[in-house]
Design a protein that fits this description.
By secondary structure, the chain is α+β, with helices and mostly antiparallel strands. It has 3 domains: about 5-130 and about 255-265, Orthogonal Bundle (Butyryl-Coa Dehydrogenase, subunit A, domain 1); about 135-235, Beta Barrel (Butyryl-CoA Dehydrogenase, subunit A, domain 2), CATH 2.40.110; about 265-305, no CATH class. Helices cover about 40% and strands about 20% of the residues. It has 10 helices and 8 strands. The strands form 2 sheets. It has a 4-stranded mixed β-sheet, with helices on one face. It has a 4-stranded antiparallel β-sheet with strand order 2-3-7-6, with no helix packed on it. Helix 4 runs antiparallel to helix 5 (about 100-115). Mean pLDDT is about 90; it is low at about 1-20.
């Protein structure tokens, strides 16, 4: 997708909270693709829940469409799209499968976080395959960390890593020994440094594959470490490597927006299903509703869209 296309603003053809014309042609095109996938993902939803992760076919569609790369730095072929596009993609996908939407949006935001790491860490991860996806876990359990020359050695368990089975690395949150005690850091580990333990057995979002990452012994070099505090005020090293303002945004102020698309789309998908079930039925006065409309559908969609 060309950079010129990214600069061409076009109106969005459905209601959003964004100003008219704010989406670019490329962004609007991706939203259209996501919307078109919802029916297929609805058909796969039961299979995905039984598998407890998104199917390989769904992952391949997301990867080929570039959904995981919307916030990836342009130097690696990413779109560097406006922050929030991944949320809109998830909202469309969730009308068919909320788990698939969750996996999409959180995986996409990890490329944004990796874009804040030192340039060498990004080069190592993406230079040979720019389409590689990265997972995360911010919940360590019993981690052991010891500083070594040029990095830090770690072991332990990190829980609830969504879509981890389809990723080639992971960003882990850890409290690293520091002169004043400990300091929060993101640590980038590659796929060969950890095992994935199948622990995700839930009712809600059952197909997100949010399994555990287990590390027995891994050395993380200094260039794969990111000071969490530096991500709050635009001082992350990736902000020097990548000129786009994305990598200067305050990380934890923006990160929650990566999680709401699945909930919004799931609610809209429920409205879709209710409308589909009621369409063509007759009222108590024997008046048949049109196939595409019921008197409850417009207020329901409006309530969800404004929430």
């Amino acid at each position: 997708m060309s950079r010129q296309a990214l600069q061409e603003s076009v109106p969005v053809n459905y209601p959003t909270n964004e100003a008219s014309g704010e989406w670019t042609a490329a962004e609007a095109g991706l939203i259209d693709q996501a919307r078109a996938l919802a029916p297929m993902l609805r058909e796969r939803a039961a299979m995905a829940e039984e598998m407890r992760r998104i199917p390989d076919e769904t992952h391949a569609v997301f990867r080929d469409a570039g959904f995981y790369r919307v916030l990836q730095p342009a130097r690696y072929g990413g779109l560097e799209a406006r922050y929030g596009l991944h949320t809109m993609l998830a909202a469309e996908i969730a009308r068919g499968c909320a788990s698939s939407a969750w996996a999409l949006s959180v995986t996409a935001c990890h490329a944004w976080i990796l874009g804040m790491f030192p340039r060498l860490a990004q080069d190592e991860f993406w230079s040979h395959d720019p389409a590689r996806a990265v997972a995360s876990s911010f919940l360590p359990v019993g981690p052991k960390l010891s500083p070594e020359s040029g990095g830090i050695r770690l072991s332990g368990r990190w829980r609830f890593s969504s879509n981890v089975d389809h990723c080639d690395g992971a960003i882990l949150l850890a409290m690293v020994p520091a002169p004043a005690g400990v300091a929060p850091y993101f640590l980038l580990v590659h796929r060969g440094q950890y095992q994935i333990e199948d622990t995700w057995r839930t009712v809600g979002l059952a197909a997100t594959g949010s399994n555990d990452i287990v590390i027995s012994d891994a050395l993380v070099p200094a260039h794969r470490m990111l000071d969490v505090i530096a991500t709050r005020d635009g001082r992350a090293p990736g902000a020097e490597a990548n000129a786009n303002h994305l990598y200067r945004l305050p990380l934890f102020a923006c990160l929650p927006h990566s999680l709401i698309g699945a909930a919004l789309g799931a609610a809209l998908g429920a409205v879709d299903q209710i409308v589909a079930d009621l369409a063509g039925r007759s009222s108590v006065a024997s008046v048949r509703w049109p196939l595409s409309w019921t008197p409850w559908s417009a207020p329901a969609e409006a309530a969800v869209s404004s929430s």
